[in-house]
Amino acid sequence: MAELASLVQRLEVAVGRLEAMSGPGDSAGGAVSVYVEAFDGIVSGPVAQYVSLSQKIGGDVQKHADMIKQAFSSQRQLLMTASSSQKPSDAVLTTLLQPVSKAIQQVQAFREQKRTSPHFNHLSAVSESVPALGWVAMVRLGMVVLNQQENKLFSNVVCMDKTHVDWVKAYVSIWTELQNYIKQHHTTGLTWSKSGPIASATAAPPCAPAGGCPPPPPPGPPPPPMDLSTSSSGGANSGDERNALFASINKGSDITKVLKHVSEDQKTHKNPALRGQSAPVRAGPKPFSSPTPRPAASPAPARTLPPVLELDGKKWKVENQEGAQNLVISDTELKQVVYAYKCNKSTLQVKGKINSITVDNCKKMGLVFDDVVGIVEIINCKDIKVQVIGKVPTISINKTDGCHVYLSEGSLSCEIVSAKSSEMNILVPKDGEFTELPVPEQFKTVWDGQKLVTTATEIAG
User: Fold this and answer.
1) Taking a C-beta distance cutoff of 8 angstroms, is the pair 39, 71 a contact?
2) Rounded to whole angstroms, how far apart are CA atoms 437 and 399?
């Protein structure tokens, strides 16, 4: 069955290619562009194998694979447009990138909705790597394609039996082939045609079809008000019982006078015949009971602020962005600064030379910039990736957990200043590849007789 499903996938890709060659949107001469054909090879190869193995596993993994297949289909439409059209303006380009961006968001949202799934590890591996499809919006491939360490992590997470091992290998091979594809055909970003009309927003394919689970229903009505009449009557009865209890306690030693004397023939340890009989239990005063507590008030819903991308004086404000993979600031000046605040699962690209960049309280965000004459600051963030295209003198990392910095050939003299941060790695280019170097997190300080001397240490073992 797995071989048959794989054959069907390959036939579907072949039919799609034939339809594309007979319809509009092709490059000159009616033939598919060379890099579109190479991309079709990835779809008919590793992607088809991954979809086939996902169908074999079934359930949520199969549904997730269908979304990945749709994401690659949306990216192929974009490549077809680029192969026959010249590069448009940034506004039109953002519109053309929307189907790919929405497909990525759909894959990530499905994982969040399926946290109780038995295959949640599979969904997480796919969800955390699918942003690599955002390479079409980048200048260089740098940080968008998975590195080998991340691939090993995914393998350790989901490997259980042969089917799952093959599933991991097929999925990892998708990104390996995509990385090689980008290096061969799109080394400086998405390659556009040098002839033909300028691409327009109408050339964008329809948005990714809605899939996955519907949004959660709105919260129900608040609980009914508490009946106070029952509580007040119960409080009066418990007050009388409490008074009776205190009155009996205040008798002191006289309280024992009401106790009944037990004769020898009534003691169970001396009369075995009495042990099988159930002695009557005398009801005493009930303990004091507090009134029925009021139900806790439901917490107020979290306030969602609107996303912001605007120039305020000399400051570019990028705030409250959620899942925005195509944020671009292109019209920049040397005196301007960029401030990104509370952005989640988003990617920001800053073109030109600018004074400084600050990323504050952001999660899972990517930052790509050309040149900065001042400083780049990363503050109170989690899982941040920064790529330098040109030069920057200083990068400051404070109170951040997880930060990857990709340096360029011209920024190797950059100073990295860190404090109260963890999981920091600097990636240095070498022979067309990046070498990952960790930033020390543990230090040793000793007194040498005149001053304190601090050196980085490594944890043994």
Assistant:
1) no
2) 20
Q: What is the mean pLDDT of the chain?
A: 79
Domains and CATH numbers, the chain: 34-186 (1.25.40.330), 308-456 (2.160.20.70)
Q: Using 50, 70 and 90 to split pLDDT, how confident is the model at 366?
A: very high
pLDDT, residue 236, reads: 53
Say what the pLDDT of residue 449 is: 92
String of DSSP letters for 163-213: HHHHHHHHHHHHHHHHHHHHHHH-TTSPPPPSSSPBP-GGGSPPPPPP-SP
Contact 130, 71 (CB under 8 A): yes
Q: Is 349 in contact with 366 (CB distance < 8 Å)? A: no
Rounded Cα gap, residues 275 and 115, in angstroms: 57
Please count the CA atoms within 13 angstroms of the CA of 453 that sit on its side-chain side. 5
Q: Is 340 exposed, middle or buried (0-12, 13-18, 19+ CB in 10 A)?
A: buried
- What is the pLDDT, as a whole number, of residue 228? 47
Please report where in the chains the tokens 């590849």 appear, as a residue. 433
Provide the 8-state DSSP code for 285: P
Contacting residues for 319 by C-beta, under 8 A, at least 6 apart: 305, 307, 308, 340, 341, 342, 343
For residue 67, the SS3 value is helix
The three-class DSSP label of residue 215 is: coil
Q: Is the pLDDT of residue 206 over 50?
A: no
Out of 269-278, 294-303, 314-323, the most confident range is 314-323
Q: For residue 172, with 0-12 CB atoms within 10 Å meaning exposed, 13-18 middle and 19 or more buried, which class applies? A: buried
Helices 48-57 & 59-84, crossing angle to 10 degrees?
Answer: 160
Alpha carbon distance 60, 43 (integer Å): 21
- Give 150-153's long-range contacts (Cβ < 8 A, gap of 24+): 151/175, 151/176
**Helix (H), strand (E) counts: the chain:** 9, 16
Instruction: Give the residue from 186, 176, 139, 175 showing the smallest Cα distance to 35.
Output: 186
User: In this structure, what DSSP letter does residue 44 have?
Assistant: I
Q: How far is CA 416 from the centre of its chain?
A: 26
Q: Quote the Cα angle for 45-74-133, to 5°.
A: 70
Q: What's the CA angle centered on 75, arms 325 and 98, to 5 degrees?
A: 40
For residue 1, give the 3-state DSSP assignment: coil
Task: Give dist(CA 220, CA 200) in Å, integer.
Answer: 45
Assign 283 a pLDDT band (cuts: 50, 70, 90): low
